[in-house]
């Protein structure tokens, strides 16, 4: 009777081992799978950066003669005569880096890893043109909740919705489209905004949804 019980236990153990092997190596399968996904994401971010640079600058219209003076007026609140939607678009480009900084809170500075903070600082001037290279170069993204207080997300959301709503309600959408097509600054800013939206959506998975 003891021998029969031992045989059944051995068969059960062998069956579980075979099942684990068939499922991709048991506990070892998940890390290998996660590593493969991370490598594919790094490649995707690198391709996205090249596409962003190519479209934003390769097809950009000429810059306006007073571009730097115009940017300074937008920065200092001298918005008289400007399309509110263009102004709102410009202001939202300052909120996106803050949102990414909150999302990547645990990656600002990590021993043995590429720090995110220099790229996040650069994003206030260059947007996703600096963030996509970071996402492509980092080896191990920090998943899970970023550890940012809810009120921070609330302020960011309020600012985003406020500027977006004001721009859409008070601004001229057709005028913004014309400006984006003909202005050498607004054209790349439009593509940069799109890149920010996609990057935030992708990076949010596994962070903001984690419990």
Structure overview:
With 211 residues, this protein is mainly alpha-helical. Helix content is 71%, strand content 0%. It has helices at residues 2-22, 29-58, 67-75, 84-103, 117-126, 128-137, 150-170, 173-182, 186-204. The longest helix has 30 residues, at 29-58.
Per-chain topology:
Layout: H1 2-22, H2 29-58, H3 67-75, H4 84-103, H5 117-126, H6 128-137, H7 150-170, H8 173-182, H9 186-204
Question: Which keywords apply here?
Answer:
mainly alpha; about 0% strand; disordered N terminus; about 210 residues
Quickly count the domains: 1
How many β-strands, per DSSP?
0
Shape: globular
- The H/E string reads HHHHHHHHH
Low-confidence stretches: 1-31
Q: What does the main sheet amount to?
A: none
Distance between the termini: 48 Å
Mean pLDDT metric:
85
Instruction: Compute the number of helices.
Output: 9
Roughly what percent helix?
over 70%
Q: What is the SS-derived class?
A: mainly alpha
- Strand content is under 5%
Overall radius of gyration:
24 Å
């Amino acid at each position: 009777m003891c021998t029969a019980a031992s045989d059944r236990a051995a068969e059960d153990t062998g069956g579980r081992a075979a099942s684990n092997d068939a499922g991709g190596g048991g506990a070892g399968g998940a890390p290998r799978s996660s590593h493969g996904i991370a490598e594919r994401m790094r490649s995707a971010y690198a391709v996205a950066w090249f596409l962003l640079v190519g479209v934003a600058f390769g097809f950009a219209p000429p810059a306006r003669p007073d571009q730097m003076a115009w940017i300074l007026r937008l920065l200092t609140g001298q918005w008289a005569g400007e399309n509110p939607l263009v102004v709102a678009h410009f202001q939202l480009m300052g909120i996106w880096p803050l949102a990414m900084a909150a999302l990547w809170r645990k990656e600002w500075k990590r021993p043995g890893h590429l720090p995110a903070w220099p790229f996040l600082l650069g994003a206030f001037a260059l947007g996703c043109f600096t963030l996509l290279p970071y996402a492509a170069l980092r080896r191990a993204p920090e998943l899970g909740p970023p550890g940012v207080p809810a009120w921070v997300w609330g302020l960011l959301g309020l600012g985003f919705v406020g500027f977006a709503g004001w721009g859409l309600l008070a601004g001229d959408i057709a005028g913004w489209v014309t400006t984006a097509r003909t202005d050498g600054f607004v054209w790349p800013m439009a593509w940069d905004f799109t890149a920010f939206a996609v990057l935030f959506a992708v990076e949010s998975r596994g962070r903001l949804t984690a419990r």
